[in-house]
# Entry
Amino acid sequence: MKTQVTILHHDYPARVRDFVEGKIQTLSRFHDRAISMRANLERQSEDHRVELIANVGRGSVLVADAKGEALGPVLEEALDRMARQMKRHHDKVTRDRHRGGRPGHVA
# Structure
């Protein structure tokens, strides 16, 4: 899975970028067809904002974001939200794939 970390309007240390990249790599276990994951980190006055964008194939894009005063808890909240979305999407795609038959065909 291709990953990208973008930092907007603020300088975070390089270790933060590496930490976030490692964390978003772990999300690939929730969806076997994940193509890419992008993390946008932004600081707006006292608040940190993390937005995660996942391309999971066939035109599906999942987005999760969180905002708060400390970067660590905000990142964890965004990762949890994305993990739930990826699991739900994977289960839906897998369930539809296993139903079989042709699309639009009523048996």
